Amino acid sequence: MMASGKCLCGAVAFEATPLPTMSACHCHTCRKWGGGPFMAVPCKNTSFSGDITRYSVTDRAVRGFCPACGTHLFFYVKAADIYALPAGLFDDDPVPSLRAEYFIDQKPEYYCFAEQTKTLTGAEYFEKFS
Question: Taking the model in full, what pTM does it have?
């Protein structure tokens, strides 16, 4: 099922097929990028309209944002060919609940989630996408 959404100013829109899961990434980079955990929905068949600024995080991943309003648009995992889109960008809630947490070894003590999730350390995450 296709889902859609847009950035805060509406200059960038997307359509994507969400996978039936939502994850939270606790890595230092995601927390620095957004001020907290990155709550994302992995998507296939993702297409964007509008200008996007891309930032190559590493040789494995790219982040994208709207150059007009700064909205975070995606974290693209090259090896898996998956766009992780922020859950709040979707016009409608794409999935019912949080299913996984990544970089659990970098999660700070000042927050926690009530749901029981699958957890991966940073090393386990990189192994999964190698």
Answer: 0.89
